[in-house]
Amino acid sequence: MANITKKVSWSGRGEERTPLLNGSEEVRYSRQSSGGSVFHIGRLSTVDLDEDITPEEDPVRSKPKEIPHNEKLLSLKYESLDYDNSENQLFLEEERRMSHMSFRCLEISRWVICGLIGFLTGLIACFIDIAVEYLAGVKYDLVKENIEKFTEVGGLSISLILWAVLNSAFVMVGALAVAFFEPVAAGSGIPQIKCYLNGVKVPRVVRLKTLLVKVFGVICSVAGGLAVGKEGPMIHSGAVVAAGVSQGRSTSLKRDFKIFEYFRRDTEKRDFVSAGAAAGVSAAFGAPVGGVLFSLEEGASFWNQMLTWRIFFASMVSTFTLNFFLSIYHKKPGELSSPGLINFGRFDMDNVEYSLYEIPLFIIMGAIGGVLGALFNVLNYWLTIFRIRYVHRPCLQVMEAMLVAAVTATVSFAMIYFSNDCQPLETVTSEDYPLQVGFGLCTYNPLTLGLFTLTYFFLACWTYGLTVSAGVFIPSLLIGAAWGRLFGLLLSLMTTGKLVWADPGKYALMGAAAQLGGIVRMTLSLTVILVEATGNVTYGLPIMLVLLTAKIVGDYFIEGLYDVHIKLQSVPFLHWEAPATSHWLTAREVMSSPVTCFNRVEKVGTIVDVLSNTSTNHNGFPVIIQAAASEEPGKLCGLILRSQLIVLLKHKVFVERARSRLSQRKLQLKDFRDAYPRFPPIQSIHVSQDERECMMDLTEFMNPTPYTVPQETSLPRVFKLFRPLGLRHLVVVDDENRVVGLVTRKDLARYHLGKHGLEELHLAHT
């Protein structure tokens, strides 16, 4: 165990403690000193296995201190979602009462919900497209009129100032909404949704307010001319829509439509959020199949076959809805638009094919994309660290966003003004908003493409992470398309004769794939998205080769951009597998303790005291059968959640009330669903002194069959049980089925492979 460099601080209550359970010390059990039957089992303290700990250096506290942000931390503010159904007596009785037709109706309801998710996501995408088009049109009309007015007198400084002011104004409004009303709406939202689907409860990530700020913010960001796209925010928006529609109510508006009540639990909600994310991709790129694969590859941690078809249905409905309403808006009833068509790289390849001897060139482009993507991620990583430490106030965040908008407008204006490779404006008829500075509209030549790639690369890197709603898909594709076309042009210049295979548009597509793949490390889903968006199936194989090469090369230097930001937010994210060198660790060494246990029939006052204790804030409690006159904890007989106990206290489900027939009705599963997901805090529930002396029978409400592992189970085996099943608590028992510890998400997430082997992260309030 000498190769572990750091140990995490776990804390509980009381003064009794047991050092790290490494097999050399015996687990000690202690009863709560205030009475009752709550047991604290063991303790994991901060231990450096390479040095001796003196009493003065012992860092055990009642609660970890809040320390400055560091990428080597794991945040305590994130809780886990309950993706494992609690099969208590209420649940089993309801399932037994349901007929075959009832289950068929539930399945039909799932399809209806997915259809609604796709429809509403498509409407939101349509609204964003129309709003951005209108605001951008107004902005460019003003700039164009100003340029035409002042060009005649030989001065363009006023036009430059106007452009910068308009962009800064749009971005300021969007940044104000994000910074002061809903900070979780910043960025693309993909890292947050990825964490949610992984089982992490990210605060406020799927709220209605977040959706409104997200949509408003992305409109302002794109209209403000930032180096951003709307694709990432569309994925987040679709996920929020799914989380709301699937519950049949709005907790923000306090409106309950009394529908879809069966789906008010984390397990069902997770599947619909996966459908919403896929619908967002489909609406952004016009790629239904790509949306399904994106949700599978980049988002969802849990999957099944029926979910695939429902998600595909939601994606299809989203694409059709967007195209249908955009066609009506543009007054072209017979022609559906294709908003996802990527045309910025001029992929004019209707009759262009590739040759086998070009495969090495594509692989080289993939390697270039991997290196550039890694450089992008490294620069953005350090920039984000700087922002976390020094630009954490909302006013500073808004000012930074306005500064980036002004700089972006200035750089864009300067590049257009100083560009010499322009063609007459009259020959260009495909541009909706042609902007003429001087005598022509700029096209492509090697110098322009190289300068654009360099400037836009750093602008996009600076922009991602601002306190605005924005995505990185389109900027990455645009950067890659620029240097990819430059690559193709250089090939044409280096070779003699007219070569059909050296078509710049083909290499623009490969460059776009390489750059985006090098940044976000997507492979299969991005291949299908690009194929669907460009409408060209021929390049499926080379695109896949490019993306695989970009991922392999990029992963050698740094993780993907989304994983980098998840790490910077100190989220306890569980990857697909446990660290490769962790087989020698056992459940006894990774579990957290002490474990607070309840008896099957427990005193109400004891339950209230435990739930009210802010120093622990546990969310799961093993239920035990206590042996008479024994100081050791009893044998495990179930597991009950904090949320369930709060509902029981709220409805006064006490043994004495049941005997005296004071309870008007028997508690049902509907009562728990009505309280989901915002269960009331324990402080809002009044329990009188007489009620504290009552007893509560947990038999009917606890999960009698929780997942357990022996204390000698290896960490990879614990991981394989915990992550695929979406568990929140995994009870560790000894040979006699007595509770010795509890494995939670943070216990597993704190182990990772570092530069010096297997490391453990510190826990802190960040």
Structural notes for this entry:
It comes from Astyanax mexicanus (Blind cave fish). It is found in: Membrane. The protein is mainly alpha-helical and 766 residues long. Helix content is 51%, strand content 8%. The chain is built from 25 helices and 20 strands. Strands 10-12-13 form a three-stranded mixed beta sheet. A three-stranded mixed beta sheet has the order 15-16-17. Strands 1-2 form a two-stranded antiparallel sheet. β1 and β2 form a beta hairpin. The protein is elongated and about 95 Å long. 47% of the residues are buried. Mean pLDDT is 82; it is low at 1-68, 332-346 and 435-442.
Protein topology:
Layout (H helix, E strand, L loop, with lengths): L28 E3 L7 E3 L31 E3 L3 E2 L8 H9 L2 H52 L5 H25 L8 H9 L1 E2 L6 H16 L7 H15 L3 E2 L4 E2 L9 H20 L2 H12 L5 H25 L29 H32 L3 H25 L3 E2 L17 E2 L3 H18 L9 H22 L9 H17 L3 H11 L5 H18 L3 H8 L18 H4 L7 E2 L1 E3 H9 L7 E6 L9 E7 H9 L4 H5 L9 H7 L13 H4 L2 E3 L10 E3 L4 H11 L4 E4 L5 E5 L1 H5 L1 E4 L2 E4 L1 E3 L2
Parallel strand pairs: 3-20, 10-12, 15-16
Antiparallel strand pairs: 1-2, 4-5, 6-7, 8-9, 11-14, 12-13, 16-17, 18-19
Helix pairs in contact: 2-3, 2-5, 2-6, 2-7, 2-9, 3-5, 3-11, 4-17, 5-6, 6-7, 7-8, 7-9, 8-9, 8-15, 10-12, 10-14, 10-16, 10-17, 11-12, 12-13, 13-14, 14-16, 15-16, 19-20
